[in-house]
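Justification of computing resources. Each target in the renewal requires a structure prediction run like the one illustrated here; the chain below, 273 residues long, is used simply to show the kind of job we budget for.
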Amino acid sequence: MKLRRVRPLQGLAWVRAGFSAFGAQPLAYSAQLGLAGVMLLLISMLPGGPLLSIALLPLLSWGFTVSGREQAAGRRMPALPWLDALRDPRQRRGFAALGLLYAGLTFGSSLLADALDGGRFNAFVEQLARDSAAGGGTLDASGLEGSMALRIALLGAVSLVFWHAPALLVWGRKTVAQAVFGSVLACWRGLGAYLLMGLGWFLLLLVCLALVQVMLIGLGLIQAASLAALPAGMAFSTAFYASLWRVYTDSFEEEGPATAGAAAAVNPPAPSA
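Resulting structure tokens:
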């Protein structure tokens, strides 16, 4: 794989590409996100399930990149895009290692945030649980904004480390260490685009929520306005995952026919619809 040059404004193009891909296949992408969510929910109920569900996120996110590739090629999007990776022993081991590393860094970032904010966030969560059990109370949210921003920044950094690692592991035939390094290098060289993309998603979601709530309140549907965040968040999440293929192709290019042939051998094209 060869790195492409990514300009900062490309981040906004990725946001548009996500909505475009989602708009072309809304049911397929929504079904995939719903299936992934149900799987994670069921797994989280098992002993050690919460950690395992975090470890599965690189595999599940890679499935959306596969779906985006098939959609861009005009082929039918697979119902279970994760199966190809699980059939190959090398890829199974690779995704297991990626998942464990991802879960470890995610857990480590949470511990680091706890240490840096002096336990303020955990104290708020405990207070919220106590007040909910008691049937009400006044919450002290002072300083919570900085704590939340710190956690978002740390989790965002972990996400960038693994952003392209699954695709490089499968299509680039890289080792786990090479895939993670390639992902870090790509995200670092195009950091402006990734930051602008994140800002674009965040601001669009806020504007969308505000407009929907104002409209519903204007119609007298005050209770419905408080529930508007759920479908809006789901739609934006789906569009975000639908953009992953475009982000990958704008960040990497095949070095030659040999690389493309190897990738095709590992992931043969799906039959045309």
